[in-house]
């Protein structure tokens, strides 16, 4: 072991943090968070303990990135196969190893193509599986998590949703909100009303122009 490895090893109580990945150890770690009645599913209580162990708040966006790496199907749950898929790829079978990967996981959000994948994944991950659309309360939380810090118009968009008639967001609207946030200027100068945007975003532009005192005469909603 070189000096750097020795120093890394002393940074954590986890003495195996520099050893090679072990599927057996990874499975044993998983089972620390499951119950005997359902040993292959890590549920909400186990998730809370897992987050506590790795020192990450459950609502931290890095947990969404980790779920994306696992391709987890349902928020608040990891199956054994999902756990092994994600952690095998990350080569993590201990608390110490995954803590060393947290910065890497956060940095994935800075890669536009990967971020788009995580954003699209979040829709199916977070929505109620009994519904085709995402309820607005969940959508607001997820949009805040993913776009709140990086989209200057997010607070206005959140206000628009609060006063709008919309109770759910469908996948087309969800995907177009990201595209809008990436391509439309904050002054809306390049928004094309005749473009292929969902009516929701036409209505947001109209509402925002009224809020800014710019009037709505030039932004009659398409199809009205």
From TrEMBL:
Pfam families: Cullin_binding
Major localization class: nucleus
Domain (DCUN1): residue spans on this chain: 21-209
GO BP, one annotated term: protein neddylation
Spans through the membrane: none
PROSITE patterns named among the record's database cross-references: DCUN1 (PS51229)
GO terms of molecular function: cullin family protein binding; ubiquitin conjugating enzyme binding; ubiquitin-like protein binding
Subcellular location: Nucleus
Keywords attached to this entry: Nucleus
InterPro entries in alphabetical order: DCN-prot, DCN1-like_PONY, PONY_dom
GO CC annotations, alphabetized: nucleus; ubiquitin ligase complex
Function: Neddylation of cullins play an essential role in the regulation of SCF-type complexes activity.
PANTHER family named in the record: DEFECTIVE IN CULLIN NEDDYLATION PROTEIN, RP42 RELATED
The protein, known as: Defective in cullin neddylation protein
Organism (species): Fopius arisanus
């Amino acid at each position: 072991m070189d000096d750097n490895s020795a120093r890394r090893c002393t940074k954590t109580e986890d003495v195996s943090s520099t050893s090679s990945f072990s599927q057996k150890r990874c499975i044993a770690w998983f089972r620390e968070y499951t119950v005997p009645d359902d040993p292959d599913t890590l549920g909400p209580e186990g998730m809370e303990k897992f987050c506590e162990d790795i020192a990450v708040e459950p609502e931290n966006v890095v947990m969404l990135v980790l779920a994306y790496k696992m391709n987890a199907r349902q928020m608040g749950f990891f199956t054994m196969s999902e756990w092994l898929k994600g952690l095998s790829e990350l080569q993590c079978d201990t608390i110490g190893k995954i803590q060393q990967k947290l910065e890497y996981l956060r940095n994935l959000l800075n890669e536009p193509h990967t971020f788009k994948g995580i954003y699209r994944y979040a829709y199916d991950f977070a929505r109620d599986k009994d519904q085709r659309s995402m309820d607005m309360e969940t959508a607001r939380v997820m949009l805040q998590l993913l776009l709140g810090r990086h989209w200057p118009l997010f607070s206005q968009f959140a206000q628009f949703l609060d006063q709008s008639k919309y109770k759910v967001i469908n996948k087309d609207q969800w995907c177009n909100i990201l595209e809008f946030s990436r391509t439309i200027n904050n002054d809306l100068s390049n928004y094309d009303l005749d473009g292929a945007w969902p009516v929701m975003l036409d209505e947001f532009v109209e509402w925002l122009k009224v809020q800014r005192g710019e009037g709505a005469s030039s932004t009659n909603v398409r199809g009205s």
